[in-house]
Design goal:
- The chain has 15 helices and 11 strands.
- It is α/β, with parallel strands linked by helices.
- The radius of gyration is 21 Å and the shape is globular.
Length: 456
């Protein structure tokens, strides 16, 4: 696998030209919606002239297309924002560019990040890096695939309930969902504001640590950001690690269980203690998530009305028809489904019965995690219940599609850091990932642990 260090020693223009060529050569995967070639080459020449310097000088990268970035439209893979030119850049992108990194393109995703397969993109699905008949995962499927194909050494994604970790698992790369508030969400199209996080895909944990160190920190433009606590650290010895038994049931693919147990043995060989733990409330996490998140989705998408910005329908007779037709044409089916669920659980007569109860249950989930972390440093389990599933396999069954997030949503609801790391492959050659979950602000420790396993 290519690492960031390999790029820093090379000519920046050469890095960009080669990355764009790899992107074009792999266009059949449909991982990218657009390229920022002109701007990328301009920045590369500035790096080569010594006008731009930094820890990532001349290193190409890709951003998920819900990040505002210059050089190409920001569409969130939706007809609603087709052709939208960003008036500013996301803070995460600005921080990376300040260190000399060069964005070469915008990655495909499920429209407005609603989905777990990147099949909900208004511009067509992304194909799995290992098997073109399988899904890339989602919603950050494009970012995972460009990293897995070595088009770029790293790519940015957003993770609301598993949108980085699940595609990372499906494509055999490292995917980081940090503690909620670690990285500014300013300049990223909102999905669900209480669980949205900004993270990264890399080929190894060392590179992930570097990118997170650059992106982390307080941002006055995002009041949910935390003071900069992320400090790269050496791997700790003798950690107490809990294997969550609820993630290792008969409902989980046998090969996934075997890969997880094999990774557990590697942890034990490194001197860590791994014992089984129970977290019964996780069985309700998916129900909580698909009440709370659609509620926030319905609120965040209310701004797309065909008037202020975004798609505007033609041939309408009145204001109500303008609203309805613009939203009908601009949103894909999954967007509409989540808006309707969210509006329902927030409506008069159902708010107390559904939304309020889900928030109370979320508090119980946080408390149960806290109890486990009183005795354990890290929790582990599979990232997903199966390897990547087939294209079109779950599109007709939304519930089955939602179940693909069953392992990842608990950490999102609790605001905990969680990373997916490669753990092996299935007999069919499909990647399998395991998920490491830590206490709030233990992000650097998790990455150090993953690095130590990689080195071993």
């Amino acid at each position: 696998m290519t690492k960031i260090a390999d790029y820093i020693s090379k000519n920046a223009r050469q890095n960009v030209v080669e990355a764009i060529k790899r992107a074009n050569d792999n266009s059949e995967y449909h991982a990218l919606l657009s390229l920022t070639e002109e701007r990328a080459l301009e920045r590369a020449d500035a790096v080569d002239r010594g006008e731009i310097t930094g820890r990532l000088a001349g290193v190409p990268f890709v951003v998920k297309d819900n990040f505002l970035a210059f050089g190409a439209p920001t569409t969130a893979a939706s007809r609603m924002l087709e052709g939208f030119k960003a008036p500013l850049q996301a803070t995460a992108v600005e921080k990376l560019e300040a260190e000399g990194a060069i964005c070469i393109g915008k990655a495909n995703l499920d429209a407005f990040a609603h989905g777990g397969s990147t099949e909900n993109s208004a511009f067509g699905p992304t194909l799995n890096a290992y098997d073109k008949t399988k899904v890339a995962g989602g919603s950050s499927g494009g970012s995972a695939v460009v990293t897995a194909l070595d088009i770029v050494p790293f790519a940015l994604g957003s993770d609301t309930g598993g949108s980085i970790r699940q595609p990372a698992s499906f494509n055999g790369v490292v995917g980081v969902k940090p503690t909620y508030g670690t990285v500014s969400r300013y300049g990223v199209v909102a999905m669900a504001s209480s669980t949205d996080t900004i993270g990264v895909f890399t080929t190894d944990a060392y590179d992930a640590e570097l990118i997170m160190d650059i992106m982390a920190g307080k941002d006055d433009k995002d009041m949910t950001t935390l003071p900069d606590f992320f400090k790269p650290t050496a791997a700790k010895s003798g950690l107490k690690i809990g294997l969550i038994t609820e993630t290792m049931t008969d409902d989980v693919d046998l090969e996934v269980q075997q890969a997880t147990l094999a990774y557990v043995e590697r942890l034990k060989s490194a001197g860590h203690t791994v014992t089984e733990v129970t977290l019964p409330i996780v069985q309700y996490a998916l129900a909580m998530y698909y009440i709370i998140v659609p509620a926030e989705v319905s609120s965040n998408l209310a701004r797309y009305d065909g008037i202020r910005y975004g798609h505007r329908a033609e041939g309408v007779a009145n204001l109500a028809e303008l609203y309805g037709k613009s939203r009908d044409e601009g949103f894909v089916t999954e967007n509409k489904r989540r808006i309707m669920i969210g509006s329902y659980v927030l409506s008069s007569g159902f708010f107390d019965a559904y939304y309020l109860q889900a928030q109370k249950a979320r508090t119980l989930l946080v408390n149960e995690f806290n109890k486990l972390f009183a005795d354990y440093d890290v929790l582990i389990g599979p990232t997903t219940p199966t390897p990547a599933f087939g294209l079109g396999e779950n599109t007709a069954d939304p519930i089955k599609m939602y179940l693909a997030d069953i392992m990842t949503v608990p950490a999102s609801l609790a605001g905990l850091p969680a990373i997916s790391v490669p753990a092996g492959k299935s007999a069919a050659g499909l990647p399998i990932g395991v998920q490491l979950v830590g206490q709030r602000r233990s992000d650097a420790m998790l990455l150090a642990l993953a690095q130590s396993v990689e080195e071993a």
